[in-house]
C-alpha cells in the first residue's frame, strides 16, 4: 500500500510539473513573437517634411518629398531624402548646413504619407475613399479585424474593404411583400362578403 501511495504521489508531482511547464510555455510563446523594437520609419515620396534651422527663420521650409525622392532646400539645392530614417536625414542636413552656417542646429518634423482606405458599399454600389493620417485611424476605417489581417499596414498603403453585404432581396423587400399580401386579402375579403 505504501508503494501505491508513493507512485500516486510521484505521478501527481510529475503532473504538476508538466502543467506548470505547459503554462509557462503558453505565456512565453506570445512574448517572443512580439517585436521588441519597432522598425524606424523610412522616408519615402509623399512624406511631408518641415525643416527648421534654429535662429534662421528665413530658411525654414515645409515640403513634400518629390517622386524622385528629393526636396529642395536653400543653400543645398536638391537633397536626397528617400530611404533614410528621420534621424539619419536630420544628421545629414546638420552636417550639410554646417558648411554654410556656423553651429547649425537643424530640426526636421515629419508628417507621414497618408494611408488611403477604399470602402466599397456593396448594397448601394458606392465607393468611398478615406484618407487616414495614422495606422490606427486606417484600422478604424477598415472595420473589425475579422474582415482581414491588417497588422502589416503601413504609411503609404492603399487598402480596399467591403463595408456591407451583398443585397438580399427578401431582407430589403419583406415589408412590401407582406403589405401587398395584406391588401390582396383585404380586397378579397371585401369582395366576397
UniProtKB/TrEMBL annotation:
Q: Molecular function terms in GO for this entry? A: polysaccharide transmembrane transporter activity
Q: Where does the Polysaccharide export protein N-terminal domain lie?
A: 39-110
Query: A Pfam family this protein belongs to?
Result: Poly_export
Q: Does the keyword DNA-binding apply?
A: no
Concerning InterPro entries, the annotation shows: Poly_export, Poly_export_N
> What keywords sit in the KW lines?
Signal
Kindly provide the name given to this protein in its UniProt entry: Polysaccharide export protein N-terminal domain-containing protein
User: What is the native source organism of this protein?
Assistant: candidate division WOR-1 bacterium RIFOXYC2_FULL_46_14
